[in-house]
Design a protein that fits this description.
The protein is an alpha+beta fold. It is 61% helix and 9% strand. The chain contains 9 helices and 4 strands; from the N terminus they run βαββαβααααααα. A hairpin with a 2-residue loop joins strand 2 and strand 3. The longest helix is centred in the middle third of the chain and has 19 residues.
């Protein structure tokens, strides 16, 4: 990337929270123009600032956007959240069994941060909890394992570190609206119908 001749970082992406509509995009463009900043792509949640942005300009932009309900996101937090998602995904979808320690301790040790800080950052950026993301990931993995048909429900619940088959089944039904058995039966039926066509 490098710097421009006046010391500003050249071309960078900034992240904007609550940017959910065309009106929001127009507001961001308007505020960038007021600061004399040239932009490239303006998408929901991200803006490419072509000539970079100084700390002072970033503060000014942040204040202006806040008045419209928009907020500049700390890129470090966004990166941290992505790392959390990657650790959870790797853990749930990896070939090894899930760790036997409590998940909060495992994540904290893996990431090198206090769990409360990780949980608060994740909720702030993703508007959901780490626990909800973990549950959704485990259920997605359970679906894959059910359809692979290599493991039975007891083995799946053990592999995904559920305390019991009933615990897995309860969470599965809460997330999907179906019991694991009914989910598997419907998928098999759909597969049979496709093969008949």
């Amino acid at each position: 990337m490098g710097n421009t001749s006046d010391g500003r970082p050249r071309g960078m992406i900034i992240h904007v929270k609550n940017m959910v509509s065309l009106r929001c995009k127009m507001k961001v463009k308007e505020e960038l123009a007021k600061l004399g900043l040239h932009h490239g792509a303006v998408d929901l949640g991200t803006v490419e600032v072509l000539d970079g942005i100084t700390s002072a300009q970033r503060r000014q932009l942040g204040k202006a956007l806040l008045r419209s309900g928009l907020e500049l996101m700390d890129v470090r937090k966004a990166i941290l959240v992505e790392r959390i998602r990657n650790v959870v995904t790797k853990m749930v979808h990896g070939p090894e069994e899930l760790p036997k320690v409590k998940f909060s301790i495992f994540l904290s040790e893996e990431m090198g941060y206090d769990y409360t800080y990780l949980a608060n950052t994740f909720s702030e950026i993703k508007h959901t909890t780490i626990e909800q993301f973990l549950i959704a990931s485990r259920i997605e993995r359970a679906k894959e394992l059910l359809l692979d048909e290599e493991l039975n429900l007891t083995e799946i619940s053990y592999k995904l570190r559920y305390s019991s088959v009933a615990h897995l089944s309860g969470q599965f039904k809460k997330v999907t609206g179906l019991t694991p058995t009914l989910f598997k039966r419907r998928k098999q039926k759909r597969k049979v119908h496709l093969e008949d066509m």
